[in-house]
Specification:
alpha+beta, eight-stranded mixed β-sheet, three-stranded antiparallel β-sheet, disordered C terminus
Length: 362
């Protein structure tokens, strides 16, 4: 197995960081959760929802050999996963990008053309080419993978990292028209984000990243704004203008898509990494089977698991709710996440071949 990455080993990237229980379970199942802990990633034992002046705190109880939740920096979790893949025999190449796909006479993808940081190109043959290359996936573009389901809403977000905040759990803030979150991560830092409807994002930026960010935090709750005022910012502000969610066709002759390349939903519910870990396991099972029906089964299983989360997240991202309604949406989100955790626990079961056959022939 060969994996390529445009970035450098251990580099950082834009991320929501927060892992939900199913994501932590998956890391435990792969045997890498110990390394995440050893990197100093703080354990999260509570998550608090702030609805105006009402606070709903949920304790994260130890379950299935998992003692809590974790929110590692991407520079931590990516490195841990790369090291584990190498130990398992994979070759990982950095500072390298995909130039094009190679196809056989029957148009089946059978390899790739790569270019490294020194502008050297090479051809690599492959039985299966997997695009794990994000929302604007090059692989998806080259195979013309179409979207068959899309969301309606998107949020924009500005975030940065603060030291000495005193947070020891996840904190999510909701008021009419705005949202924010505080996520403790590595190095004693807390990622604090401010989120608004996409159509307001550029208006917030016109104030300047810092001014727009602080304005949203003030609207979300005086305690969060006050915490930021007394803490120290340690990194620059970063922004994401938003992207409407989608499901893409995620398999074809000699190729497949995984993670945000195949299925993306708004980051407001902080579920992207958990999705990617679960989808990777589903795709690995299908790739090991080595059949088109198995790949169809991967997509069917992913969609069945993701559909409820997708709809709830799109509704939250609409900002077309009052506080009682967003609380109802969060309860629905919790129900969907329980289904995810059950899926991870049952991962040793085979894919639903009947669903795979029906999807493949429809």
């Amino acid at each position: 197995m060969l994996a390529i990455d445009r970035g450098r080993y251990g580099s950082d990237t834009v991320s929501t960081h927060a892992l939900m229980r199913a994501g932590v379970l998956q890391l435990s199942r792969w045997g890498v959760l110990g390394e995440i802990k050893a990197a100093g990633t703080p354990v999260i034992r509570s998550t608090s929802f702030h609805y105006d002046d009402e606070v709903v705190e949920v304790q994260i109880k130890p379950q299935n050999d998992v003692d809590g939740l974790y929110a590692p920096r991407r520079s931590v979790i990516d490195r841990v996963l790369v090291d584990a893949a190498r130990k398992a025999g994979a070759e990982i190449v950095f500072d390298t990008q995909l130039v094009d796909l190679v196809r056989a006479g029957n148009d089946r993808v059978c390899g790739v053309r790569l270019r490294d940081g020194h502008e050297r190109e090479r051809h690599v043959s492959a039985e299966l080419v997997i695009g794990a290359d994000g929302v604007r996936s090059t692989v998806a573009r080259l195979v013309s993978a179409g979207c068959y389901r899309t969301g309606r809403h998107a949020t924009g977000v500005i975030f940065t990292y603060w030291s000495d905040t005193g947070f020891d759990g996840y904190h999510w803030y909701y008021r009419t028209g705005v949202s924010a979150g505080a996520i403790p991560t590595n190095g004693g830092l807390t990622c604090i984000f401010a989120s608004v409807p996409q159509n307001r994002f550029h208006e917030a930026l016109r104030l300047g990243a810092e001014a727009g960010y602080r304005q949203v935090l003030r609207e979300c709750g005086s305690d969060l704004a006050a915490i930021v005022e007394r803490s120290q910012r340690v990194e620059k502000y970063r922004g994401f203008a938003g992207e409407v969610g989608f499901f893409r066709q995620s398999f074809g002759p000699g190729w497949a898509l995984v993670g945000d390349a195949g299925y993306f939903k708004d980051p407001l519910t902080a579920h992207g990494i958990t999705d990617a870990l679960i989808d990777s396991e589903l795709l690995a099972q299908a790739a090991a089977a080595g059949t088109e029906i198995a790949l169809a089964g991967y997509q069917a299983a992913r969609d069945k698991l993701a559909a409820g989360l997708f709809e709830v997240t799109d509704a939250v991202a609409s900002f077309e709710w009052d506080l009682p309604e967003v609380q109802r949406l969060h309860r629905a989100l919790s129900d969907e996440m329980k289904k995810e955790s059950l899926q991870v626990i049952q991962f040793d079961s085979p894919l639903d071949q009947r669903a795979a056959t029906e999807t493949h022939t429809s």
